[in-house]
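Re: beginner question about structure tokens

> Can someone show what the tokenized structure looks like for a real chain? I only ever see the sequence side.

Sure, here's an example I had lying around. Input first:
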Amino acid sequence: MSEAILNRIRNIVIDYTNKHQYESALFWSDKAASLSQYHASDVYRLAQSMFHMKQFERAAVLIIKRKLHLKYNAFRYLVAKCYASCKEWQLALDVLETVQPDGSTSMVSKKILLEAEKVEGVPEDKEMIASLHLLRGDIYEAMDVRDIAADCYKEAVKADVFCYEAFDRLIGHHMLRAEEEQDLLESLPMRKQCKSVEEQNLLRFLYDIKLKKYNKPGQLEVPDSVDNLHENLDIATSLAERHYYNCEFKTSYKITENILKCDPYHGACLPLHVALLVELKESNKLFYLAHQLVSRYPELPISWYAVGCYYLLQPKKQELARRYLLKTTLLDKMYGPAWLAYGHSFASENEHDQAMAAYFTASQLMKGCHLPFLYIGLEYSVTNNTKLAEKFFSTALEICPDDPHVLHEMGVASCTNNDYQSAVEYFNKALNKIQELGDEVSIEEWKPLLNNLGHVHRQLKNYPQALTYHRQALVLSPHSADTYTNIGFVLSYMGNYLEAIEYLHKSLGLRRDDAFTASLLDTVIEQFSDSDIPVYGEVVEAPELPPTCTREFAYKPEDSLIDCQSEKPRKPLQPAFSDASGDSTTATPSPNNPLTFNYKLEVTDNYTTPEEAKCLDTPMSGITALNYTSHDESCSKDNDLGTSMTGMSYPHTRSKGTVDHDDSTWWARKRGEAHSGSTGTLSTSTVHGQDGSLLDQSAFTSPVTEQGGNQVFSTDDDMELDDSTDQ
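And the corresponding structure tokens:
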């Protein structure tokens, strides 16, 4: 056979390989190898064609029989790659490592390197050094020997600074911490391997932007020589990742959404986009994305990871979430985010042991990421193992010192250890970080931080500051029963029992089965009953009168309850009505005939008895009204005109890092990973009628009617609000 025909067949093989017609390439490469009596270059092309056709063992046997793997690194790499594709990890390592005469192992024999000759169409041995280190690192990582794998990846990227796969394994799999990543970048021989300064600057920029994921995003500075990289999708993905790790989820989501519009299946962007959809609780968009991925790429782990994350957002479908997340780990057991989500599914059902097992696996796979250590600490905190919780929180803080989640949990751990000064420092740092985020902050997510600041200041007996933080939390979440209880708790310490009872009533209106709030309410009521007796209305100062003298004063219905400061308490008497001229009348008040209340107070020589004081007990939710007695009879009946506040009952859920009302118990829980600020005011004058409807307080100023000698207050719709009063 002439050399021209053989060269023609070799060109046909190369042409079909470039066209991805591997079956045709395999057919002609087999003929070329036979015609050349298995020349090294033809054997290499034939083995490559078999590898492309996934005939791995056949390709390995072809090379080993001719012992070409002992002479050329390219054949050595191809044989090891075939065994690794069959998951024969030990056989692959045996091929890669050569035993030296001194007993040590090496990737390449020095003797073989000296004897190897250059073959056309086969890469040189020096060109394959980085690939051999990369493959060796992949094998060790698959065998869960991650420390050696990381060393192999470092050697690969140092042998060839353009070997992005090795660099991506180190960074994408979170094998290194921030300082180790920076040391690696500084140790790369860019100046030696790059042919120009411009090439060196480009390489440093592309690697540097992937390293600083915990740094502030800032403005992207692209070298002038490569200004067009502003629109590169990989660069945009790296920028979105920075926003994500700085808790700027909405900004990051906008970037990833634009990326997927240009490239719907961008491999580096998809895991980040799925995490953002979970954080922002966009279940509908996540369902659509998962459906598209499964229908097009059922063999990829990201497809089933998206399905598992969708079910993770459904409260009662955690079993389905675990099923699909487990399938993700079977496809790629190194997929760290799937292990994190797998732990979340157990933690949401209070299965702490299984959750921690999943988090520990994630921590081994993501050594340079702070999230696994944060969640392990949370589980230990929930199970009251505060020492281990603080240890893992400290590890997370070392990796990511500016994450407000970590700072918040460190504050909770300090509170548990009764180190309130340190807790205040951590909480204030977290609050400062949140204020920097602005609209990125989720209202519901950061309400526990304000409440916890209130708890700590209460422990430090700084009650006004504690009350301020609790009221700020109430503005963020007006329907939080916990916050109402917290405010009532602080007010009771401040001696403001009346307002404390009001807030505790509102808390029970939102969550009636809260045992702590009910017990606290009973205690505050007992303290209130032992305190000074209050009277209603504004008392105008007047000289002390003889016991038999009386005087009148005007009562304003809008006046609030005040404490009586007189040495001799006065007993309210039966009100009389008078018209505008001051004459007594029994006419019904109306807009054209306004009436005013007049009270007669009798100064007594003795203090009011506890039985009489009961007349002044009032409910703290709803309208507060007076109790009346006749002029010649002692007060003996509680004629409470108030109505209890009614409202929807909200389920009691545990928020991340929430400190319980009990001083000895501090909660810590946050699942799921979302932010916009809002302002509002709390209204304490809301009135509810007997049917639960909201009523205007001004409606209770009219009219007053008499029925059978009893005076009855009613609203415009004749809703009766009080029992009868003895005359």
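Each token stands for a local structural state, so reading them left to right follows the chain. Residues 99-105, 109-115, 535-540, 547-727 have pLDDT under 50 and may be disordered.
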